[in-house]
């Protein structure tokens, strides 16, 4: 967990961001789809 903006840390930042986004999508994806279905049904 380095906050330094060197060449190496900046190179690994997109990979960590993609990993966290994929994990968040895998966790929150079904909930988001369920909320969208409820929104479409009741509107």
Molecular structure report:
This protein is mainly alpha-helical and 43 residues long. It has one domain (1-43). It has one helix and no strands. The N and C termini lie far apart (44 Å). The mean pLDDT is 74.
Write out key terms for the chains shown:
43 residues; mainly alpha; 1 helix
Q: How many helices?
A: 1
Radius of gyration, taken over Cα atoms and rounded to an integer in Å: 17 Å
Beta-strand level of the residues, as a percent range?
A: under 5%
Report the count of strand segments: 0
Number of domains: 1
Helix content: over 70%
Largest β-sheet summary: none
**Uncertain runs with pLDDT below 50, 5 residues or more?**
none
Shape: rod-shaped
Look at the structure and give the mean pLDDT: 74
SS content category: mainly alpha
**Cα end-to-end separation:** 44 Å
Order of H and E elements: H
Keywords: Membrane, Transmembrane, Transmembrane helix
Transmembrane segments: 22-42
Strand and helix layout:
Elements: H1 7-42
Brief overview:
The chain is an all-alpha fold and 43 residues long. It has one helix at 7-42.
């Amino acid at each position: 967990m380095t906050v330094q903006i060197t060449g190496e840390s900046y190179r690994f930042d997109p990979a960590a961001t993609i990993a966290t986004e994929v994990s968040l999508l895998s966790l929150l994806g079904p909930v988001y789809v369920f909320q969208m279905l409820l929104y479409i049904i009741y509107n």
